[in-house]
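Lecture notes, continued. The same structure-token format from the folding unit now serves as the input rather than the output. Read the line below as a description of shape only.
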């Protein structure tokens, strides 16, 4: 039974993180480095696209930008979260999606409309990894 306590704690932490989406008062500064959680929170509260929220008493901004491959035949998206930590050090979390064909992107944009396209880009995180940076002056 003593070995069960770490598992119970992990379950409580998973539930807290899930609850953060509906109650941002539960967000901790340490959560800022989880791109999936941050994207989920921003998407639920701000919607698709860029925005700013105050989380854990800290103003956090989200920006989304598109980028293309060297040959320009494929495109991807990057979501960047920026904030100044409670220690006064600026920080940034960047997350890039994998490249997709521009032709299929243009077709999807025509079918879905640009707002829906931004929403799709906002959620297209399979197979990508975040780039975490701490910015020093």
């Amino acid at each position: 039974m003593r070995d069960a306590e770490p598992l119970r704690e992990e379950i409580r932490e998973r539930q807290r993180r899930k609850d953060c989406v509906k109650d941002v008062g539960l967000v901790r500064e340490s959560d800022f480095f989880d791109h999936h959680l941050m994207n989920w929170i921003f998407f639920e509260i701000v919607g698709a696209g860029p925005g700013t929220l105050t989380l854990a008493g800290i103003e956090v901004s989200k920006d989304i930008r598109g980028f293309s491959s060297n040959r320009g035949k494929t495109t991807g998206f990057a979501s960047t979260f920026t904030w100044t930590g409670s220690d006064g050090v600026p920080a940034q979390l960047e997350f890039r999606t994998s490249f997709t064909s521009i032709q299929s992107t243009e077709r999807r944009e025509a079918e879905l409309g640009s707002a829906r396209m931004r929403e799709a880009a906002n959620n297209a995180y399979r197979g990508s990894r975040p780039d975490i940076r701490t910015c020093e002056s």
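Point for the exam: The longest strand covers residues 58-68.
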